[in-house]
Amino acid sequence: MEDKKVIFSGMQPSGSLTLGNYLGALKNWVNLQNEYDCYYCVVNMHAITVPKEPKDLRKNTLEVLANYIAAGLDPELVTLFIQSHVAAHAELSWVLNCFTYYGELGRMTQFKDKSKKMESNAITAGLFTYPTLMVSDILLYQTDLVPVGEDQRQHLELTRDVAQRFNNRFSETFKVPEPFISKDGAKIMSLQDPTSKMSKSDANENSYILLMDKPDAIRRKLKRAVTDSEGVVRYNDTQPGVKNLINIYSKITNKSSQEIVSEYEGKGYAKFKDDIAEIIINELSPIQDKIDYLLKNKDYLEKIYISGAEKAEKVARKTLRKVYKKVGFIPRF
Ligand code: AMP
Ligand code: TRP
Which terminal CB of the chain, N or C, has fewer other CB atoms within 10 Å? Predict the structure, then answer.
């Protein structure tokens, strides 16, 4: 275990997970679990940077944990935990807020995008300093690699900058992590607007497939998926809708885009879409059964998040203790 490289990643419990979260992130996390020492966190503290109903947050937190396990993460192999259970995340975050510049946070595109859509008196300091909490999540575990989507790259660059700044100011304290962003095809796009990413916060529910969607809903959403008037299944940028569907097909079946294109030569979009719907249904159906089962067994979920937090806490405390000492805080014991 000791010589394995460390992986850290997390998802916000801000709603049900989508097929994009699953194919773009979760499925990769599962593939990494044997080779790396993995920490996968439900980042509930990040979720309150925008208004959130307490009962929804509680429900979504357990749901995301159940999604992690149902998608194939093995609690015996990886450390699964809830961010707020390990106080070191909040503690390190305060210290690192004092080593992150106002200008740096102001340049974060996710902050700019999110805050632009909000009333100015609704934008909290938490939303602004959200990236520092993410930096702390990662640095506490001396993480080597962070598997995330392309949209998180800027936050990882900030993580590296803050780690290096702290190490230079004091002495080697944090491992400087590398992003681990998979190449083309990893980003699943909206079924209604294939130029924007599939997201659970999209107002149009036909644009996304949720992991918990029933077969009928999946068939209906696929039928309505936006394509083009070419009528030929081809993998190129001038047909972004079809390209996205091929990516989904390929990610689930492991067939290459070329194989898929030749399989559908001379066939229209209707058959192509029907087949994809069935492929998605087959992939999600055992996962859905497992999610249902897990959510009925809250005691089991509780055992997992408690033992995960205990494991995570030990590692996190060690880093935090070093940090406190270096900045000049007097140790209590
Ligand atoms: P979020 O749901 O935005 O908190 O994202 C959680 C993780 O899923 C991050 O690593 C994202 O990059 C990834 N992700 C979210 N939406 C998609 C998508 N449509 N395609 C691929 N990856 C995604
Ligand atoms: N900000 C990430 C997202 O929206 C979630 C996240 C929080 C995260 N802390 C992290 C991802 C640490 C990787 C590592 O997707």
Answer: C
